Amino acid sequence: MASFNIVVLPGDGIGPEVAAAGVQALKTIGEVFGHSFNFEEKRIGGIAIDTDNNPYPEDTDRACLAADAVLLGAVGGPKWDLGKMRPEQGLLAVRKSLGLFANLRPMDVKASQVHRSPLRAEVVQGADLLIVRELTGGLYFGKQTRTETTATDECVYTVAEVERVARVAFDAARKRRNKVTSVDKANVIETSRLWRETVIRLHKEEYSDVELEHALVDSMAMHLVTRPTTFDVIVTENMFGDILSDLASVLPGSIGLLGSASLGATGKGLYEPIHGSAPDIAGKDLANPVGTLKSVAMMLRFSLNLTQEADALDAAIDAVVESGFVTRDIGGTASGSAVSKAISDKIRETA
Ligand code: NAI
Ligand code: MG
Fold first, then answer.
1. Which residues surround ligand 1 with Cβ inside 6 Å?
2. Which residue range forms the structural domain that includes residue 178?
3. Atom 36 in ligand 1: residue holding the nearest Cα
4. In testing the pocket of ligand 1, which one of 113, 249, 277 has its CB within 8 Å of the most ligand atoms?
5. What does the record say about how the cofactor binds (predicted)?
6. Residue 277 Cα, ligand 1 centroid: separation in angstroms?
7. What angle do CA 226, 227, 230 make, to 5 degrees?
8. Is there a binding annotation on residue 81?
9. Residue 113 falls inside a structural domain
10. Residues with Cβ–ion distance below 5 A, ligand 2
11. Half-sphere exposure of residue 10, counting CA atoms within 13 Å on the CB side?
């Protein structure tokens, strides 16, 4: 019997509600497939500011560093908006401490949900893509200068940084539809030329079985809206990924449906829904747990190497969403906890 140590960081607002759904799914997977998951709950974000005067307490850090994987709910809320310390600092701190350099955001549009998309059904139906965003380099981490009249932001990428995130993309593509679209601005920017050269060389040396194409970020923004079904894995640098992943995230019609994984060198990962703490619905059992459960499926796949279990969870989520037993944000009347339970029941029924 395999045993895994999972740190759970519920955070604020609806964070604890969706994190509980994630724990329930893992417990069910454990029962059905014969694994044991040990859960350790720690504080992050606003609640940690309140109790520890630190959005990412040392005790939380120690637990995360020792864990096999980390599940996060969400952080933040109006209560902490005016304070000196920000809950979001906890997010940056955990990403940095765990060395998480690749952010993965899958997006697919379910047939039953296609009418909620801002795009026409015939354009978006069947879209199923994964954006891999470099998370620790580029413009967001470069040197900044400022005078009264001039500001600069430095953008730096090394071959090693490009290689490691490209590897994540190629590896993921092999488990999907075997296609990578690398996005850059190589017609203008030097870091993008290094990006493209590195991706081409790595592809030739180690991943020639994967189909590779290149796209410029500006035309990619158009393609994501006009023909989202033609992409599988999309890999890009930090800022381009920030923008493109937000663009892609609105295609399914609710951010409550989407999960994410942030991966480091050792296979350790942080798994969280892409939405925030949703203070407007917190404590009402209205939060859609699907984004968190999709994140848990990625945890099983990428950090714990439990592929069959990940497939079972993904299939159960899809079946329940397709059945129409869904929360209010996607047109249903079910409570978040009822959806979570239905998905666990589905795993038991089909596994
Ligand atoms: P939000 O994502 O929390 O909410 C936006 C809208 O989507 C709200 O109407 C909310 O009710 C709805 N929504 C979000 N998740 C949902 C779910 N699972 N089920 C059903 N409906 C859902 O973004 P907002 O309102 O801009 O930010 C609220 C707080 O969350 C802020 O303090 C913000 O800083 C923080 N935040 C935290 C993030 C994180 O922890 N990774 C990411 C984004 C925002
Ligand atoms: Mg963003």
1. 14, 18, 74-77, 88, 91, 255-256, 272, 275-281, 287-288, 291, 327, 329
2. 128-250
3. 276
4. 277
5. Binds 1 Mg(2+) or Mn(2+) ion per subunit.
6. 5
7. 165
8. no
9. no
10. 242
11. 16
Among protein residues, the one whose CA lies closest to atom 1 of ligand 1: 276
pLDDT of residue 112: 86
Token duo for residue 325:
């037993």
Strand partners, 143: none
Non-local CB neighbours of 129 within 8 Å, separated by 6+ positions: 106, 107, 108, 228, 231, 232, 233, 234, 248
**Cα first-last separation, the chain:** 17
* Residues annotated as catalytic (active site), given as ranges: 140, 185, 218, 242, 246
**Model's pTM, two decimal places?**
0.93
Place of tokens 């090693």: 160
pLDDT reported for residue 113: 87
Q: Is 311 exposed, middle or buried (0-12, 13-18, 19+ CB in 10 A)?
A: middle
Task: Say if residue 253's pLDDT is above 90.
Answer: no
Q: How many domains does the chain have?
A: 2
pLDDT digits (tens, 9 = 90+) for 140-182: 889 999 999 999 999 999 999 999 999 999 999 998 999 999 9
